[in-house]
Queue: 2 jobs
Job 1
Amino acid sequence: MPRTVITGGAGFIGSHLCDHFLGLGHEVVCIDNLLTGSKDNIAHLEANPKFEFVFHDVTKYIEVEGAVDFILHFASPASPADFERLPIQIMKVGAHGTHNALGLAKAKKARFLLASTSEVYGDPEVNPQPESYLGRVNPIGIRGVYDEAKRFAEAITMAYRRVHHVDTRILRIFNTFGPRMQLDDGRALPNFISQALRGEPLTIYGDGSQTRSFGYVSDLVDGIHRLLHSDVWEPVNVGNPDEVTLLQVAKEVIELTGSKSELVYKPLPPGDPKVRRPDITRARDLLGWSPTVSRLVGFQRTIDDFRRRLPR
Ligand code: UDP
């Protein structure tokens, strides 16, 4: 059975990947420094003899004994709130962390999958965004730390492919949500759900006319699985093209939670993309992938998870 290393394996997406690959019989080595991840996300796995948790910061040399078949590099803070709180950690994990993870892939002759992001497109002039769009990123803006770290990560991944012949995959993840997101992560959906369940006002940044396209985490995991087992080395967008305004999202969360919360308007953070929607032609054509969980079904599952976890 394959042995799979997941950096950021205690995070929101990483922990769902641990579940997925353990479910297929892989041995899973989860590496995380718990900066934004949590032991709660993997507590149910700790008794599993095929699961190993390694408390480690991947910006430092990564040591893994024994054979490794797959490396899924998911370690990074990823919420816009983190762009202001943890900018240097974000740049270090995108740069040194990705370098170390690629070094491990080279040493172990493992296939390497990079978790990249729709943020490589910045504040885009084209909507939807195909993989061929080269992006509009402000390197000195607040979001630049994340955008440039991930652009660097894609570049060094390609360099290791070209120079060291590491077998690489690049996944560009669009807004993804679901159970295990941090309650106070600062992103729109966790904020709205926590606020609605607490009866606090939902904070709309700007006038709420900006759009995002929200994909459910199980669909993302399916896309990751397909990409990993394909021979597609070019970047692939994975996300749900179901585009919606943030105002609409806030209203849906109020409706689904049955909350009496109102809306309050706050300033739009600088550089906040006005639109975002994946062009998923490549994922459809090359991976046979498309999303299956509708936004409202996903929202309801996430609300149920938040209800269970919110302190009473
Ligand atoms: N947003 C909002 N209220 C919040 C948090 C975010 O209106 O409490 C907006 C944010 O300005 C952005 C969108 O929601 O336009 C999505 O933000 P998120 O933090 O989820 O991630 P992003 O897609 O910007 O990376």
Job 2
Amino acid sequence: MAAPKIILDCDPGHDDAVAILLAAQHCDVLAITTVSGNAPLTLTTQNALLMCELAGLDIPVHAGADRPLLVPAAHAPRAHGATGLDGPPRPEVHRSEASNDAVGCIIETVRGHDDVWLVPVGPLTNIALAFRQAPDIVERLAGVSLMGGAIGPGNVTPTAEFNIWADPHAAQIVFATGAPLVRMAGLNLTHQLCVGPTETAALRTHGGAVSTFVADLFEFYLAGYRERAGLEAAPMHDPCAVLAVTRPDLFAFTARHVDVETDGTLTRGMTVADERPGTDASPNCEVAYSLDADAALALIVDAVCSYG
Ligand code: RIB
Ligand code: CA
């Protein structure tokens, strides 16, 4: 079966970096688009270029929105550091972005190919802008597999997950499009897929340049979770959105109606899923509730080690 055609929209970010490596192994990545999120756009774009150069990936990177639709830009240095990819010694990046028009790239790529998956793993600004500028592309999509939201507690606030909170108006547009098939990997799912010292050691044992770089990323990422929550495990959020496209058999999904709170003082960015038995709200997405974490972890470690 042909590899799924995807556009990976991201804000690297430690877990975004792993999602890039995983996607390149299992998908036909037509483009990587970047957005302000974990770090400012200049850095998330540089980090995407860094990962592509490090892994020898011939994938165009297009820079996108440097701020959300309406709310002020916010970043996540506590989780990802000032550069967005703190931890490893930072290699020189010789590559440049293919354009600063990620939205145009999304529109033209979807118009030029059948059955493209959009895989956004950062704030949904680029996706919302593309849908607003070119509504015709929605029905051409194979689907939208996003990392964002939560059925249950958030991370950036008690009620909201960072990607949705960072641009709630964009998220509301995306969830409301009724795209043929929106798959949501929220925190309730992604916290089931954690890396720890075992995976870090496996990458170090492999010893390639890419696996050593990712082992350094994991150690930084893990240190943050250890300090903040006393955990020896760090969730691999963004790779879940890739695996939901390449290996949906590893997941359990339930169709739900999900809406996004944009105005609440305490609930801005909350993804409100209607879980009422017998609700008459028609579903607009497939919410991932569980996955085979062992199989998913093995796929992630194997993908990273496959780069030599
Ligand atoms: O809340 C987790 C999400 O926010 C992940 O995509 C992570 O990379 C950050 O963007
Ligand atoms: Ca991300």
